[in-house]
Write a structure and sequence with these properties.
single chain; 137 residues; alpha/beta; Rossmann fold; 5 strands; UspA; Rossmann-like_a/b/a_fold; Universal_stress_UspA; Universal stress protein in QAH/OAS sulfhydrylase 3'region
């Protein structure tokens, strides 16, 4: 049924659980598993040398998150994408570009009441995705 499954991964506990689900779904369907980690762009107004330092730190963090996702899912580096941009937009663009049949991602609830609500990124992806979205908490 699914040929390409996209895992949106940010390193959170929800994302770690989503990684296990995405890996199992990919194995069950014989599908390609693609991992996407999006990181926010560094604001231009920081100026030099602050911009370069902030960008370096952001990229280092993104690489660590990607390495963690690769370790959890077993995907090769070429299937673990780092994308700069707002997370929901980057996930949606990757889903379109890679022709994903399913997006798997974590929700982000905080506390007893917060767990009833989706995070803003999850809401946007669910509302605009070109394919089904599986949310994991």
């Amino acid at each position: 049924m699914f040929k390409t499954i996209l895992l949106a991964y940010d390193g959170s506990d929800h994302a770690k659980r989503a990684a296990a689900v995405a890996k199992a779904e990919a194995q069950a369907h014989g599908a390609r598993l693609l991992v996407v980690h999006a990181y926010e762009p560094v604001p231009d107004y920081l100026g030099e040398p602050f911009f370069e330092e902030a960008l370096k730190r952001r990229l280092e963090r993104a690489e660590k998150v990607r390495a963690e996702a690769m370790a959890l899912t077993g995907v090769p580096r070429e299937d673990a994408l780092l994308l700069q941009g707002r997370p929901a937009e980057a996930i949606l663009q990757a889903a379109i570009g890679e022709k994903a049949d399913l997006i798997v991602m974590g929700t982000r609830g905080l506390g007893a009441v917060g767990s009833l609500f989706l995070g803003s990124q999850s809401q946007k992806v669910v509302a605009e995705a070109p394919c089904p979205v599986l949310l994991v908490r």
